[in-house]
Design goal:
Blueprint (H helix, E strand, L loop, with lengths): L1 H8 L4 H14 L5 H11 L3 H8 L7 H4 L2 H17 L32
Helix pairs in contact: 1-2
Protein name: Succinate dehydrogenase assembly factor 2, mitochondrial
InterPro entries: SDH, SDH_sf
GO cellular component, one term: mitochondrion
C-alpha cells in the first residue's frame, strides 16, 4: 500500500500529486482488495489524460469512468471546483483550460507573443 501512496503523491504533475495524493492518503487504509486494484488502474493512466478526465475537460473512456476510485476522485475534484471557482472563470466543459504558450496577448503591458 505504501507503494501506491507514493505513486499517487509523486506523479510529476503537481496538480495530480496534490489532488490524487491527498485523496489516496485519506482513503487507502479503508480500501479492500478491489479498491486497491482500482487504484492501481487509475495510477497507471497517463497524467495529461487523467487530469483532463478528472476536471471534465474531456470525457473519459467507459473503462475509466466505471472505475470506482476514478469516480470518487472525480467527484471530489468537481465538488472543489464548484465550491471554489466561479463557472465564468472556467472553460466550457470539454474544452482545455489553458491556451498554448504561443497565444498572442494584446494588452498594454503584455509581451508581444506568448505567455512568458
Amino acid at each position: 500500500m505504501y507503494r501506491l501512496l507514493y505513486r499517487s503523491k509523486q506523479r510529476g504533475f503537481l496538480e495530480l500529486d496534490l489532488v490524487l495524493g491527498k485523496w489516496v492518503d485519506e482513503h487507502i487504509s479503508s480500501m479492500d482488495e478491489n479498491g486497491v486494484k482500482s487504484l492501481g488502474d487509475v495510477l497507471d493512466l497517463e497524467n495529461p489524460d487523467l487530469w483532463k478526465w478528472l476536471t471534465g475537460q474531456e470525457q473519459p473512456p467507459e473503462a475509466v469512468s466505471s472505475n470506482p476510485v476514478f469516480s470518487a476522485v472525480q467527484d471530489k475534484v468537481m465538488n472543489n471546483l464548484n465550491s471554489h471557482a466561479a463557472p465564468e472563470t472556467r472553460a466550457i466543459p470539454g474544452q482545455p483550460w489553458v491556451r498554448g504558450w504561443d497565444d498572442i496577448k494584446k494588452g498594454p503591458d503584455s509581451p508581444i507573443t506568448g505567455n512568458q
